[in-house]
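Dear all,

This email documents one entry for the complex benchmark we are building for the journal club exercise. For each entry we list the sequence lines for every component of the assembly. Then comes the predicted three-dimensional structure of the complex as a token string, followed by one or two observations. Please use this as the template for your own entries, and keep the labels exactly as they appear.
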Amino acid sequence: MMKIWAIIFAAMLFSGCSTSVERIDSDTTVDLSGAWNDSDSRLVAQEMIQDALSRPWISDYTGRTGERPAVIVGTVRNLSHEHINLKTFVADMERELVNSGRVDFVASRDERGEVRDERLDQDLNAREETRNAAGQELGADFMLTGQVNTIIDAEDNEQVRFYQVDLTLISMADNRKVWLGQKKIKKLVKNASIRY
Amino acid sequence: MFRFLATPLLGLGLLYLQGCSSWQINQLSTALPTAGPEETLKKLEEIDPSDRDRTQYLLNRGVLKLYSGDLDGSRQDLEQAKVIMSSLQAVSLTENFGALTANETLRSYTGTPSEQVLVHAMLAMGYLFSGNLDGARVEMLQANVTMSRLGERESVSGQLASVRFLAGLIYEMNGELDDALISYRSAHEIIKTRGEQVPDALATSLLNVSLRQNNDEEYEKHVAEFGRKASLPKANEGEWIVYYHDGVVTNKTEARLSVFEPKLRSLISVVVPQYPPSRYQPRRLSIKSGNGKVGAGTDVNSTEVIEMIERRAREDLADQSAKIMAAATVRAVAKYQMVKEAQKNGGGLGGLLANIAGVLSEQADVRSWNMLPSSIQVARTVAPLDSPVQIVGKGLALPPLNELGASRSRAVRYGVALVNSLNNRLLSYPPVKGIKSNEGQPNEQ
């Protein structure tokens, strides 16, 4: 009996007292719980924006106006089963759009408010030659909106998690939908049925 | 020499280390109706729970923070509790061994089926009253997955009408009427299966949404059942859905059964958890909408029970009783064998010590989410957009819905409020800062 207890305690002692930290590349995919993670956010944003930029709406707009389209990211709703931090997803999309160099990007509603406050402050406090005038903002030509949906199918310790991300690019001039993007992810999650 | 005492003595040691926090939590729960959530929260935060009791601790702290208005803190605690409960679904070898040789409290607390569902409802309320309707919707989707996992054929274990109703409400506010109707239907079915009274708020929801969905057949069925027609708000009206959490759910207690075995001169002790008979009587909360004068364009409504937590807690325990008894029997046999071995190896003294250790280590698992309300009540009332709604007896007034962003031109005009019997704090969606009680009455009579 004592031997059994000695083994159990040794196992408890050695498994419970060590914390290990390993630095890994931020692009490395690590799936722990099966939930939406940084890799999903980054990969979906990359793929969808690349798809959006390869479609004819850009060349149509540029050909018609001679200018690059200005895009703003509107609301991306989380209608999934998880509390997904959509701010990182939106930030990933913004980064992809800006870095593509093929579109101009307009600050979001919250960011605009802060910039306008700063401009007002400049009016009062900055030297005249360094002031930026109000009323010179670039208006967006297109708004990107979207939603994340999930379907969960679970049985015993297994779960299939299906994510569908839908993005829509809408022309601000006439409400036309000029691009519809969709990305699906399916994960099979097997939870342990026994723990120590 | 006394190697045979290792198991019970180890059990006693562990009990000493961890039994204290759950006992303290239960004491605080008993005192909660008089101490109030804020004071109880302070005392609870002085407790350092063992890992096995951490879920119970976080669940209770989460609900106290919700009642105290600390919505961020409440969400953090309840989310953490939810994650722990999920991770504990797998069977633990060491905990099972401990439970079968010493007692049930050596298992980590995973929550009853009702608690596993209610954590989503409390979280949804936290998100909702923070103004995050999508966050609340996420919790309701998760609650649906949890209830599907817990649901068995011809059983309503882990199926909560109040959570289905809340899901329906969230879908309805989100404009998803088809999903709302499905959830309201589920709530209705659960209540009928349990043979309980359908609250007026649920009847109104079923009537209104089936009518708005043009589901004539279902609408007529509900009209026949409830004896009235839908009461959709007019262009200058909106709706307040008021939740009332009344009382504090009863604590579990120990029932000890000790039998003397004359042949072995041994006292065999079996201890199981039980609920004392409930003396709880729900107290309703009156809600007055309109111009404030009864009988002159004023509607007086009152909250009705949609979930009797007292009853759910007892049902969950009853569902577990066979397992608990089986484990207790295995344990009793193990301890009997231990005493027998002790008598053989250590003589009379060894047998006596083993017997004492066995009896003392036997302890019922009386942990529960015991700071939940005794009942969850709800009322759904139509109110003019420009008039406040009075919560009579609490001295609280809900502001006119048009001050919260509702207007004639907006199709969706809802307000949701949570009031509890333990303090005079009011939480609302859309969130309103600075709602305070005019009077200091702790309870509605």
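Observations: Chain B has eleven helices and twelve strands. The two ends of chain B are 64 Å apart (CA to CA).
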